[in-house]
């Protein structure tokens, strides 16, 4: 039983008002709201357990370490990784990608080598590769898409060459909602002898993601997009790859022994975790993952699908509506423009009605160029949204439409 009213009560912010209107929050792709038990866990840990992890012999430090390492196990189980050594805590998707690009690029890429990305990547899966290109002279190849927003898999195949060293693609587009067939894309990459990084920032909150089932080499996501706290994220990597990669940052925690002559790095996963980790944040993340596991990812996916179908159908009834992204496999993200109303105007006016949507290029300017537009209005849904909120959005758009 998916008891939406009870679920909404778990998220205190949902009962606030904005400009004296009930808040309707449709900016979940940017960040999700937090259930009470996540925020409570942060407060509780600061008040009753706080101590730096891994270094102390004292009681609190040991307790904090146990909580932190238990969170790693929760993440491992959540994505079905083979070992906790494969779970690296970072600050978020962006840092996870930068870590991987830096370490992988350092060890395995030379001038003239190639990475394959797709046209629908977030800037965080483009710019780190461009920085590497500037440092090392690597080339970036781009998988194109059709007008529905589906990647062209035949073209993907053709992009592989002797110089391809890695593929890095998003699981779900944060603009189009397209669910890319990453399992098949991983198989193709492996057939060419190269690993694939999955940017799961927009899939982890909405569907079951099993790294072993996908056979993903690397997979990254952010805690704050999956009902967890800000400032914590994950890089999953197969142990056989992580073992071969050099550290990203140096400092405490990531070493076994330091002398001025020679430093021995720590084992996995600590080799990649320099400095004090956000051990309070990792507990919050684990609570968030436990929360959605208890609700059931299949139930969440089914509920969000129903909402997305309903929203799409209602939006299409609005005169002048253009929806961007109509892939056969599509998640809970709807990008649109209405007539020639500027996306900022639409977003600003909806905001006055208490409706939070995102406007702009959504950190995907190359995709905007492909679509021939500057930006869109984006409603991205979460497990706590309702049909009534979609009705409010539709009424809001109709009102703005009349004003123009
Ligand atoms: N990748 C995708 C697909 C995203 O949607 C986002 C954020 O919107 C990111 C990466 C970056 O995530 P973060 O800002 O949490 O590092």
UniProtKB/TrEMBL annotation:
<comment type="similarity">
    <text>Belongs to the class-V pyridoxal-phosphate-dependent aminotransferase family. Csd subfamily.</text>
</comment>
<dbReference type="GO" id="GO:0030170">
    <property type="term" value="F:pyridoxal phosphate binding"/>
</dbReference>
<keyword id="KW-0808">Transferase</keyword>
<dbReference type="InterPro" id="IPR000192">
    <property type="entry name" value="Aminotrans_V_dom"/>
</dbReference>
<dbReference type="InterPro" id="IPR010970">
    <property type="entry name" value="Cys_dSase_SufS"/>
</dbReference>
<keyword id="KW-0663">Pyridoxal phosphate</keyword>
<keyword id="KW-0456">Lyase</keyword>
<dbReference type="InterPro" id="IPR016454">
    <property type="entry name" value="Cysteine_dSase"/>
</dbReference>
<dbReference type="Pfam" id="PF00266">
    <property type="entry name" value="Aminotran_5"/>
</dbReference>
<dbReference type="GO" id="GO:0031071">
    <property type="term" value="F:cysteine desulfurase activity"/>
</dbReference>
<dbReference type="InterPro" id="IPR015422">
    <property type="entry name" value="PyrdxlP-dep_Trfase_small"/>
</dbReference>
<protein>
    <recommendedName>
        <fullName>Probable cysteine desulfurase</fullName>
        <ecNumber>2.8.1.7</ecNumber>
    </recommendedName>
</protein>
<dbReference type="GO" id="GO:0006534">
    <property type="term" value="P:cysteine metabolic process"/>
</dbReference>
<dbReference type="InterPro" id="IPR015421">
    <property type="entry name" value="PyrdxlP-dep_Trfase_major"/>
</dbReference>
<dbReference type="GO" id="GO:0016829">
    <property type="term" value="F:lyase activity"/>
</dbReference>
<comment type="function">
    <text>Catalyzes the removal of elemental sulfur and selenium atoms from L-cysteine, L-cystine, L-selenocysteine, and L-selenocystine to produce L-alanine.</text>
</comment>
<feature type="domain" description="Aminotransferase class V">
    <location>
        <begin position="24"/>
        <end position="393"/>
    </location>
</feature>
<dbReference type="InterPro" id="IPR015424">
    <property type="entry name" value="PyrdxlP-dep_Trfase"/>
</dbReference>
């Amino acid at each position: 039983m998916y008891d939406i009213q009870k679920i909404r009560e778990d998220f205190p912010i949902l009962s606030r008002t904005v400009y004296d209107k009930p808040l309707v929050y449709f900016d979940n792709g940017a960040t999700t709201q937090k259930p009470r038990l996540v925020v409570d866990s942060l407060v509780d840990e600061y008040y009753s357990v706080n101590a730096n992890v891994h270094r102390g012999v004292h009681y609190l430090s040991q307790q904090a370490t146990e909580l932190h390492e238990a969170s790693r196990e929760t993440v491992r189980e959540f994505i079905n990784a083979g070992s906790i050594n494969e779970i690296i805590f970072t600050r978020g998707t962006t840092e996870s990608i930068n870590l991987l690009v830096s370490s992988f690029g350092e060890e395995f890429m030379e001038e003239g080598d190639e990475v394959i990305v797709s046209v629908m990547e977030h800037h965080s899966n483009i710019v780190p590769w461009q920085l590497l290109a500037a440092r090392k002279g690597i080339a970036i190849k781009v998988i194109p898409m059709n007008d529905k927003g589906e990647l062209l898999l035949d073209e993907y195949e053709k992009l592989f060459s002797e110089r391809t060293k890695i593929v890095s693609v998003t699981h779900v587009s944060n603009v189009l909602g397209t669910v890319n067939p990453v399992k098949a894309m991983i198989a193709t990459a492996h057939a060419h002898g190269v690993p694939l990084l999955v940017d799961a920032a927009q899939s982890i909150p909405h569907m079951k993601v099993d790294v072993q089932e996908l056979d993903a080499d690397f997979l990254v996501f952010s805690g704050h997009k999956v009902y967890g706290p800000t400032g914590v994220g994950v890089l999953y990597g197969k142990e056989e790859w992580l073992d071969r990669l050099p550290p990203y940052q140096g400092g405490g925690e990531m070493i076994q022994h330091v002398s001025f002559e020679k430093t021995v790095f720590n084992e996995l996963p600590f080799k990649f975790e320099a400095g004090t980790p956000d051990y309070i944040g990792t507990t919050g993340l684990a609570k968030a993952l436990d929360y959605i596991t208890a609700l059931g990812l299949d139930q969440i996916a089914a509920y969000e699908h129903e909402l997305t179908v309903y929203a799409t159908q209602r939006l299409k009834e609005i005169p002048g509506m253009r929806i961007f992204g109509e892939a056969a496999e599509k998640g809970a993200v709807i990008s649109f423009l209405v007539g020639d109303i500027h996306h900022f105007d639409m977003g600003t006016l909806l905001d006055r009605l208490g409706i939070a949507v995102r406007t702009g290029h959504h950190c995907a300017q190359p995709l905007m160029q492909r679509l021939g537009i500057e930006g869109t209005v984006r409603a991205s849904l979460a497990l706590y949204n309702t049909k009534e909120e979609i009705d409010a959005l539709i009424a809001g758009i109709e009102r703005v439409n009349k004003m123009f």
